[in-house]
Amino acid sequence: MNNYDFGLRGHDIANNFSDMCIQAHEHGIKLLQFALAKTVTDVNFDAVGYDKELSAKIKKQLDEFKLSTAVLGCYINPVDSDPVSRKTQTERFRNFIKYAKDFNADVIGTETGWKSSFEETQSDANYKDFLNTMLPAVDDSESEGVNIGIEPVGINTIYSVGMMKKMLDDVKSERLSVIMDFSNIILTPEIHDKQNDIIKSAFDTLDSKIKVIHLKDYTFADGKKAFAPAGTGLLNIGLIFECIEKMSSKPKIILDELPLRLYKETVDRIRNNY
């Protein structure tokens, strides 16, 4: 397990960019999920768009602290029912593709959004709506040489391993990849009972398309789900690492929903137990 690099979300380290860099360095963190808008808080990125000088300034500080970006986080709702809000968000995502290129990010990441109801969100019409919104961004990613990382979530447009595979087959882009977070797919105790099949299916089906693993755990109490630090809940983390070991190219691992104060003990627990 010592050949794995574990990272953390930048906004779980500190709520401003300078403090994030300092705290990451002091805690031995070298790998980030870096959400610009949540960390570089003195910039309105929707107003600024892509600023090459700003990008170079941020990259210089990341380099000074030897921080690499596994995921440039730009989590938007690409099926927002408000057309003005959707346009703003998708323009932000397309601008952030350029930042991702500058930062040498493994992927620029987003979830796939939601509508007003579960049924509408997971309808064929909404899936087509999602594709129509994202295809121009995929074209941008191909032009810039940047990977888009799509994260399936059980309540969103792309909600399962099967839907993720369908999207990859429909879009057919070498620049489209996967951020896999099994705790975001396993929503209920009934789905939890099938977790081993879900995990194996994801690696068998998506394989090298999985560029990043979000690793967090979960528990259930009276049927209600709660997230937990990796290795303290019900997720079969051992099986996940067994599957990763079989991959020709290992994904980056970001500890998700984890306070900075628990980072070291969580990494130690994973290394010792799995």
Report what the structure shows:
By secondary structure, the protein is an alpha/beta fold. 48% of the residues lie in helices and 17% in strands. It has 14 helices and 10 strands. An 8-stranded parallel β-barrel has the order 1-2-3-4-5-6-7-10. The protein has a two-stranded antiparallel ribbon with strand order 8-9. Strand 5 (148-150), helix 9 and strand 6 form a beta-alpha-beta unit. Helix 9 (161-171) runs parallel beside helix 12 and helix 12 runs parallel beside helix 13. The radius of gyration is 18 Å and the shape is globular.
Layout of helices and strands:
Blueprint: E1 6-9, H1 10-13, H2 17-26, E2 31-35, H3 36-39, H4 45-48, H5 52-64, E3 68-73, H6 83-102, E4 107-110, H7 118-121, H8 124-144, E5 148-150, H9 161-171, E6 176-180, H10 182-185, H11 189-192, H12 195-206, E7 210-215, E8 217-221, E9 224-228, H13 237-245, E10 252-255, H14 263-273
Helix pairs in contact: 6-8, 9-12, 12-13
Number of strands: 10
- Helicity range of the residues? 40-55%
Largest sheet entry:
8 strands, parallel, barrel
Which runs of at least 5 residues are low in confidence (pLDDT < 50)?
A: none
What is the CA–CA distance across the termini?
Answer: 7 Å
Keywords:
274 residues; eight-stranded parallel β-barrel; alpha/beta; two-stranded antiparallel sheet
